Amino acid sequence: MKEPGPGRLLAVDLGLRMGLALMDGAGRPVWLRSKHLGTMAALRRAAHSILRELPELDWLVLEGGGPAADIWVNEAAKAGIRVQVVSAQDWRPDVLTSSQQRDAKSAKAAADVLARQALAEAGLPRKTLTSDAAEALLLGLWAAGRFIPADSGPATC
To answer: Within a domain: residue 74?
Structure first.
């Protein structure tokens, strides 16, 4: 396992359709992506490849569980990356209002608006934004405030 310290954090909204958000050591967004993979085998290859392309990654924060989470956790362990697995119920109450969380449609719409604001503040324009990518970005901002050391100046939502 890597030594603790300021480093990058990758937030992943899990599934065969997934959103990914890379945060820098200060908790600011670096990039945002979405991927659609057809099979668990493709997910395994993608997780391996993505983690190997990010040598300065210190944290992997996953929203969701099951076989998809297991794949990411195993790949992160091989790379010495710390992992935190959470559910939407862990981060959404800190980021969205109760009315924004009343149903999945409302939560996704609110995530889209907040993610666009965060991207604009970071100077990262986004023409298209999937709901998975928007939620990954909000997860990343939330996680950065919890897992990146306070003296690094974590981002807030």
So the answer is: yes
